[in-house]
Amino acid sequence: MQxxxxxxxxxxxxxxxxxxxxxxxxxxxxxxxVFGRVDxxxxxxxxxxxxxxxxxxxxYNLQRKSSGGGGPLLDRAKREGSADDLGVTIEAQFxxxxxxxxILSAEDAAGLDTWLRREAYSIPAGAEALLRPYxxxxxxxxxxxxxxxxxxxxxxxxxxxxxxxxxxxxxELRLPVRLGLINSGGTQDxxxxxxxRGKRYELANYPNVTIPTNLEVAEEARERFGELxxxxxxxxxxxxxxxxxxxxxxxxxxxxxxxxxxxxxxxLATLGADVLDADPGPQPVTGRGRxxxxxxxxxxxxxxxxxxxxxxxxxxGEDLIFREAPPIVGGRExxxxxxxxxxxxEDYVNNFQARYAIRHPWTGPITCQSPERGRWxxxxxxxxxxxxxxxxxxxxxxxxxxxxxLARLLKEPVPELSIMVAEPTPPQPAIVGEAPAKEPAKEPxxxxxxxxxxxxxxxxxxxxxxxxxxxxxxxxxxxGGAALLALVGLVGLRRRRxxx
Length: 500
Description:
alpha+beta, 5-stranded mixed β-sheet
């Protein structure tokens, strides 16, 4: 888990229920960029394509294959009456990076609540009720405070904390998140990434939906992609309240298009594959001298699933329980008949992503008898494979909300969300050659029927504008109170929290 916290660093504390007593060798800090890599690889992406010369002959194929210590904490905990009289036991204590960590057990939720407050943890009111079910089920508590001498604060006042990794065995895949609500100042965004061999995952105890994908968007979306995606996500949740939204399910070792290179064997080992595959068998040795080490082969077969939830303090009643789900595809440059595939569908492989496109139709002359339209690639003057890299939508918890009208930035309707847009008039290229015979002029429809125009593009646009105020735009609930990013299976969590 990774926590990006906004507020005084000394006020930050983390309490995570775990089923076993963790030892120091099970906990480590990770490089700061490891979550950035996973986040960018799986984030919703914006691509930009130009239609190629319809008369150019090349081998372009639209349907590509997808293919230590304890210090102050221990001293403080040993104060007379600090634990024993409240039924709280310190099972282990150690320091990892900037974190001072205790593993606690408790006999009573009220005693644990009192002990945490007495030990100067900033625990909001109402914590006891949320702690109680974990205490009663025999869970232990991973408790971390930050040594403020070892942290950095960015220009926005956010404390950038090192990612933490810890592991344990459990019969079910569960993420305890309810405790994160006790100090919520508003709406929170939760991003969960599950890495597992050959499987994608979804929630077993909440609804699941996939984000609408492969939508064409206006050029304005280039500079407002985060806002546009946040509005589309909010519209999806408005139609399916409380759902977990699948935004990505793909082999971790590949991507198409790639906003960042796919995960390497070393990335997977960092994220936990070294624990998952404790004994992978003989492997080649790399390095020299004292740096020699075994390079294990963790590169094959891992699927990364990205689930996105957004909820308020009162809207999340249970911790998250995960289950395996069938493979899905969608969000690729694949044609289904004469149209680009839309949405998600089950298949034999996981190739699903949230992908949106700005397209520039061909406007130059057409000089051949049989032009081939709909071949998309790089900008004019470049090789068709030299496309600009996709733009990833990141920090979505802090995206501006309530300012985007989807009916204006989307260039095609989204019927499943009741979003309608005016059909644009495509640019007409100059046809070089024999001009087609002109048809006799027709009397305008409006002249024959005063009610005509009801189905016209202008009328559709007016109707869409009326509808876009509710089904197409998000309510302005203010910036997300927190954003979390988790890797489950290879476990991790990123929490962005604002002071409040």
